[in-house]
Design a protein that fits this description.
mainly alpha; 0% strand; 92 residues
Length: 92
């Protein structure tokens, strides 16, 4: 193998390496773009899920308030009935 042949082989290898590096750079750019899109999508999904959880919490709080109000009314009625039955027991 002559010096000229060796230089041709080295030049071809350098060209191949440069093409590979360019391909890697292009791939990195595409990957960075996809990562950015993925981050945005994940942020949107997380925000949506948090919003749903917050809304569900508010609905549950409303249900709890209605139940507590109903229990308070029932408790008041039971107190009245206890007073009435105590009064009837004294009379009898």
């Amino acid at each position: 193998m002559t010096d000229r042949d060796l230089l041709d082989v080295i030049a071809k290898n350098i060209v191949n390496m440069q093409e590979d590096i360019k391909g890697l750079n292009d791939g990195q750019v595409r990957l960075e773009s996809q990562v950015g899109k993925l981050e945005t999508r994940m942020e949107t999904e997380v925000i949506d899920k948090l919003r749903v959880l917050f809304d569900a919490r508010n609905v549950q709080n409303d249900v709890n308030e209605r139940l507590i109000s109903a229990l308070d009314r029932i408790e008041g009625k039971i107190d009245v009935l206890q007073l009435e039955t105590a009064h009837i027991r004294r009379i009898i």
